[in-house]
Amino acid sequence: MSEITVALSQEFLEAYARIPRRKQGKVMAMVTKFRENPRSPGLNYETLATPDPNLRSIRVDDDYRAIVLKPEHGNVYVLLWVDKHDDAYDWAARHRVDIHPRTGSLQILASSTEAVPAEHPEPPPNTMSAAPAEPLFQARDRELLRLGVPEMMLGPVKTLTNEIELEALAPRLPEEAFEALTFLAQGEPLNEVLETYGVPDTPAEVDRQDFAAALRRPDSQRRFRVVEEEQELERMLQAPLAHWRVFLHPSQRQLVERHWNGPVRVLGGAGTGKTVVVMHRARWLARRLLEDMASDNQKRVLVTTFTRNLAIDIEQHLRQLCRDDELARIEVVNIDRLVARLVKRRGAPRLVYPSDKGYRKAWDSAMQMKPAEPNLPETFYLEEWQQVILPQHVLTRQDYFRASRAGRGVALNRRQRAALWPVFEEMRTQLSHARLRPFEDGVFEAIAMVERGELSAPWAHIIVDEAQDFGAETLTLLRYLVPAGQDDLLIVGDGHQRIYGRRAALSRCGINIRGRGKKLRINYRTTEQTRRFAVALLEGQPIDDLDEGSDSQQDYRSLLQGEAPELHHYPDFDAEMDALAERLNAHLAHHDPEAPEGRGADSCVVARTQRLLDQIATALASHGVPTHPISRNAPDDPEQTGVRLATLHRVKGLEFREMHIACVNDGVIPAKHTGRTEDPVERRHRELNERALLHVAATRAIERLHVSSHGQPSPFLRNR
Ligand SMILES: Nc1ncnc2c1ncn2[C@@H]1O[C@H](COP(=O)(O)OP(=O)(O)OP(=O)(O)O)[C@@H](O)[C@H]1O
């Protein structure tokens, strides 16, 4: 007798989330019993008179029933739905579960009587014409089947004439088919879509009775989960709508669940599930460490990020994803803290950043050494210090003569470098007297400590999120901190979201990703309308791929449709705030008092500076809108009441149902200091960072995006 396979579907979790709490406990008890032994006599199965002979119902209590797939052959049991008795039976009468004849994946299908939308939606205006509209897809049946379109949906798919109709058909199409059709509808060539999404033209034979094999297919794993552990089941039922914890996209799974022969780089636009990959990969590697008896039990997985907020968020999510023993093998720390920890010694200088008072004081003293010739502004020196001296660890005049100044817009000959050098030398002297050390020097010190054998790093694997904001020196340090070899480094990032600093090429940091560069393409977070708006903010800008090449967002899509982002311009700050408060109050009025989240927790107002944000908070308070600032040091408590307030920088990595980007005025975005440089290359970089800031903030919106300004709108909003 083959082993019993117990699984559940995404629909089951969604249905479970909808039933009253007191009933959920009963379902949980039933599910536990079911998992222990799906053939237990205590489970009351009933055969149903439904089109699909493999569906059964199980009694939960007097009122509720679960619908289960129990094929006649094999030992597979899949929980599909749970509802009140009549509604559950009704669901079972309207659905069937099939193994797709070409792809072999398991699909839940609305039964044929409902396969075609009852009402065809209104076509968009530009398709209204007397002539019959062209079909949206020219592909042949054979090709559509290769993409996972169910046989019974071939007819409806071939009669579609526009994307709106495709969208209306979405609930009746398996995700993989809808995704492939969306790319086709948006103009991607058929052969490319077939290559990415289709099974080969002559696929392996599919056994349409082998449900256990069907469950193992990557496309099935997008919506079905084979339950292996009791604890895991409990975690799923505790957060039934956190799909990311349970169901991975095949492109995510391919990155997570395999060994890699060296560093891997993963790109992907905002919301494509990069952080989800980071977390699942950390867990997968932690499990391997636990399973590997020969492995040193001190070995850990390090997850590092650029911002502290994201590290806190990841740590919190990992607690919900992992078992305790897995968690004990994972360490999450943002890069600044990591470096500070590595170089911390009794009496060691304190690490400082340009915003630090001591740093600024040292700089003011150093500027006293500024020569009359060449006559360069102070901003030039600061940029030279930050972009040449610190990243290349230039310590002497000779080093400076040899340093690369690639990417600087003003050339300097040897004599000029010699004239400038005393300023930088003085800066180091001043810092050293104050027992301070710039962060970058700390990084080089950590590298030197590894080289001298003074630092033994406990990490077998390192995973980097937000890699686009890491400097070359920190990436180099990470290379030093983990032995080269299998699964050593996973580098995840998106050049479009670089809001700090400049590009650094992995290959120049000793990280060779050749043949291991991957990309995620489906945006899970925002609507397609928001995605397009956000992408347009960066149109025509040169974006890198974290290595020596370039990246684009042409193949990045969202499958969710929604309202177009709203842009509003007001004569002055008060008018903008009146309108914003009105919107927020309307949103707050719809808050469900039964919901566990605090009133306003799903809405966020962002502005370019803290000062503006303070003014906004005051204005909103005068309109009776409760607000709550997002903290840098603690995870957001969703139960806390208040519309969230954050700077554009602070919302990186987060997401909200509604995003309001306020005061997008000329002189605010780009920030005034962007233009305070003589160096044209530097100016372009800064401007790109500012555009990326808006792009990042816009892509935090799950459902709605609202952008407003007063006075003159930001030049980035012109023509929008
Ligand atoms: N496989 C999945 N199933 C369901 N939801 C997913 C999946 N992958 C990601 N998501 C959801 O999509 C959203 C974006 O995911 P995530 O934050 O990992 O994306 P990201 O690429 O890191 O985004 P960004 O770069 O914009 O910060 C989250 O709400 C996440 O839960």
UniProtKB/TrEMBL annotation:
**Any one biological process term the GO annotation gives:** recombinational repair
Q: Keywords for this entry?
A: ATP-binding, Helicase, Hydrolase, Isomerase, Nucleotide-binding
Does the UniProt entry include the keyword Iron-sulfur?
no
**Per the database record, which ranges form the UvrD-like helicase ATP-binding domain?**
247-534
State if ATP-binding is listed as a keyword.
yes
Q: Which InterPro entries is this protein grouped with? A: DNA_helicase_UvrD-like_C, DNA_helicase_UvrD/REP, P-loop_NTPase, RelE/ParE_toxin_dom_sf, UvrD-like_ATP-bd
Q: Name one GO molecular function term.
A: DNA binding
What EC number(s) does its UniProt record assign? 5.6.2.4
Catalytic activity, reaction form: ATP + H2O = ADP + phosphate + H(+); Couples ATP hydrolysis with the unwinding of duplex DNA by translocating in the 3'-5' direction
Binding-site residues, ATP: G268, G269, A270, G271, T272, G273, K274, T275
- The entry's protein name is DNA 3'-5' helicase
Q: What is the source species? A: Halomonas urmiana
Specify the taxonomic lineage.
Answer: Bacteria, Pseudomonadati, Pseudomonadota, Gammaproteobacteria, Oceanospirillales
